[in-house]
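Lecture notes, unit on protein representations.

Consider one protein chain, 85 amino acids long.
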Amino acid sequence: MPENRCALCGGRYDKRRVSVDLRNQREGLIAFQHGLVSPHVPAEVCNQCGDTLFAPATTHRLLQIAQEMPAPDTTIQVPVYDLAA
């Protein structure tokens, strides 16, 4: 099987688990396992430039959650700073 090379820089993709943030117009920001314990979203990440690829099933599930907004597994409080103030 040929190596999967990055179209942006030619680097190699490594299988990893990442955190993902999506925006939802109704709810604002949706975070998928964002650094609380360890990232949980499966992806392939370029070892040179960081380009990230998701399997179609993973992308489908992320978008499904963002659209349906089921009860979250946990919620976190995020500090927000206004530099214009």
